[in-house]
């Protein structure tokens, strides 16, 4: 990151040393990676690395030499013992003995995704994230119970389980028709996209990672620097990340010499000739505060209930 003045984001520095200057910088890289690798070191950046992260995934990308109409565009295969499944992912950071998984067949909606008479298949298996953000090996590191994150072994387990589950539930055999396979694992997610601990959804939505606790879309100390993505406000998931991008675009427009935000101005347009200030609804800001207070109370109740239910095991 190229910084200037007091400090202010003034552009970016490329690997070859070239500086691309800018009035403002929007960073869509992984937020934790950005704070710890693209910006000056701070205690806040270090603390971000210690926050709870979301899950990762083992993802298969298969090219099949025939079509399987039994599979629709979107397919979800849930494990019967879902509690054990979640514990393996979020507590042990491993792959469940009976994993749940999602199957997408993009060629159902886009024929160009596969040759005629063939299918393209994407399988996503949620698994735990890397225990150590510095881990570079597919052999991983041991967790607190002593089990090792051996990703090569877990990939084999996942592939075998997926094929067996699909065959038993849909009575089709995919394995013999796979002509090409690519795989992503937590280490490869980390290496390819600099995702901290290989967590594909960034920071988790645990209590101290939501609402006012979640990293802001604008840097607290560096003016002109904004963040979008899963780990910044308001949260993770494509729709929520898009909402965060909308927030950033409004912040930038408002900071640009008071520029108007077109979609806000249009939606809030009123006929000044027939509408006096006394006629306008003034309590909408209060409703917004009430909304956040209710949301906070529900989050506290949910957190307390989760702690109590955990004691029933």
Task: Describe this structure as you would to a colleague.
Residues 278-284 have low confidence and may be disordered. The chain has helices spanning 31-37, 43-48, 82-90, 151-170, 186-193, 238-255, 262-267, 284-310; strands at residues 2-4, 8-13, 19-21, 25-27, 56-64, 74-77, 101-104, 119-127, 178-184, 225-227. The strands form 3 sheets. Strands 6-7-8-5-9 form a 5-stranded antiparallel sheet. A 3-stranded antiparallel sheet has the order 1-2-3, with no helix packed on it. The chain has 313 residues and is an alpha+beta fold. InterPro entries: FAD/NAD-bd_sf, Phytoene_DH_bac_CS. This is Phytoene desaturase. The chain crosses the membrane at residues 289-312. Keywords: Membrane, Transmembrane, Transmembrane helix.
Residue share in β-strands: 15-25%
Number of distinct beta strands: 10
As laid out across the biggest beta sheet, the strand order is: 6-7-8-5-9
- Look at the helices and sheets and give the structural class: alpha+beta
Span of the ends, CA to CA: 48 Å
Tertiary shape:
globular
Alpha plus pi helix count: 8
Number of domains: 2
Major sheet characteristics: 5 strands, antiparallel
How are helices and strands ordered from N to C?
EEEEHHEEHEEHEHEHHH
User: pLDDT under 50 segments (min length 5)?
Assistant: 278-284
Mean pLDDT: 84
Radius of gyration: 24 Å
Query: What is the share of helical residues?
Result: 25-40%
